[in-house]
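re the bet — no i am not wrong, look at it urself. input seq straight from the record:
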Amino acid sequence: MNERYARQELVKICKLLYDRQLTVSAGGNMSMRIADSEILITPSGRNKGMLEPEDLVLIDSKGKVLSSGKPSIEHKFHLALYNMNYDTNAIIHCHPLHCVTLAVKGEKIKSNITPEGVLLLGEVPMIDYYTPGSKKLVEAVAAQGQSKAMLMARHGAITQGKTLEEAYNRMEELEFQARLQLLCGEGVTDLPKREITKLSKM
């Protein structure tokens, strides 16, 4: 993928995440693969709604910085997911309010209560809390690396996709499901198992 175009697209998604209140202030980090060994990622400590294309940082598959700027402190779990999932070309990590509410309460998200949740998300694991940027967090994320989406205890959410749009759609859907779950209360139930199996094969 052309780097200039990729920078424009990733910044566009960052602004959309910010405008949709899926992330706030300098929280979260977003990336996309633009070649087999090159990844664009958001810089450390910057408001995602105010980024410009030139602010994004280019790194290789081992984390070496290939451009100006300092990559997100959490770039290592992005690399772990890219290196284990050849089909993953975009990763979004942010702190959507309802997802974080569940993550703080330690409640696993119910992603099988609507067809869209089943189709876009599948089972969503809850990763134990580890310090952001730590090796233990990277290992915990990698251990659930086949999941389309994850919650991180007391922290936030991660989605991955074959395209940037798919990763974004999964984050938007994840937050919708979290909000729906909180609105419905404890009595909400999953779709019938037969229907979940049917949808999962679609």
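see?? The chain has seven helices and seven strands. told u. also The two ends are 29 Å apart (CA to CA). so pay up
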